[in-house]
Amino acid sequence: MPVPSGPENPGPRRLLRDIVFEKMIGAIQDGTLQAGERLNDDELVAWLGVSRTPIREAIAKLVDYGLVEMEANRYTRIVQPTFEMYQHAVQMLGGFHELSARWAFPKFTDRDVQDYSKLADTAIAHLKAHDTRAVADIGALTSFTLERTGNPLLPQLEATLNARVVFMVQAALDDFQWDETLDYVEALRAAAADRDIDAVIGAFRVFQSITEHHLAAVQAHGSIPA
Q: Same domain, yes or no, for 130 and 22?
């Protein structure tokens, strides 16, 4: 017989490894766990209040995300970003931004347009204030469109790239193109409202220019070492 659902039969509980992963990736991205910092099992057990097993499983996933590096019997540590790593992640993430928008915008419902516009408004407010939360806001815009492409592979791939960019961009915020990125998000919001592919292409020409200027500034200033 079908298994009934309801308060007496709640859905499956979240796995400890997933909870630990979310806490650790949040700590990496907000700087609690810093680039190059070694990870000690005993300290992580005391902090997270769980056994070593879910911690090791979460660390293995962080390795897959490119945020932690390991060498057997030597160290487990937060990655120390290089300019090349940052450059590749930013360029790839930009490609996901464009691809997801091209595929998703024509499928947007009126409700999707409203929800996307709200996300864009939040990003715009943070960009105007030069608030670093804008980085995560832009990631949320991409996640929104990726979920509506109808392709389940894209969100999985984007998650790893976005996590790397959010982590590494903290060292490059002095070279962030605030005003130019504001123009880009406003262009995306307008393109979404009109479900206009040509406008999407135009917006991403702006994004490509922003990316080139940003990366050139980061490299010139040595914000992220080569």
A: no
Q: What is the CATH number of the domain that holds 37?
A: 1.10.10.10
* Residues 160 and 216 occupy one common structural domain: yes
| Closest by CA position to 34, among listed 76, 77, 70, 69 | 77
Among the listed residues 37, 16, 41, 13, the one whose alpha carbon sits nearest the alpha carbon of residue 27:
37
d(CA 21, CA 193) in angstroms, rounded, equals 36
Structural domain of residue 34, as residue ranges?
Answer: 16-78
214 and 103 housed in the same domain: yes
CA distance 181 to 184: 5
The reply to whether 106 and 216 lie within a common domain is yes
Q: DSSP secondary-structure letter at 38? A: B
CA-based nearest residue to 182, from 137, 152, 218, 116? 137
Q: Which residues, in sequence order, are bridge partners of residue 77?
A: 38, 69
CATH number of 110's domain? 1.20.120
pLDDT digits (tens, 9 = 90+) for 96-117: 888 889 999 999 999 999 999 9
pTM of the model: 0.80
CB 134 within 8 A of CB 170: no
My answer on whether 46 and 87 are in the same domain is no
Express each pLDDT in 175-216 by its tens digit. 999 999 999 999 999 999 999 989 989 999 889 999 999 999
Residue 65 phi/psi, 5-degree rounding, is -75, -10
Judge contact between 101 and 149, C-beta under 8 A: no
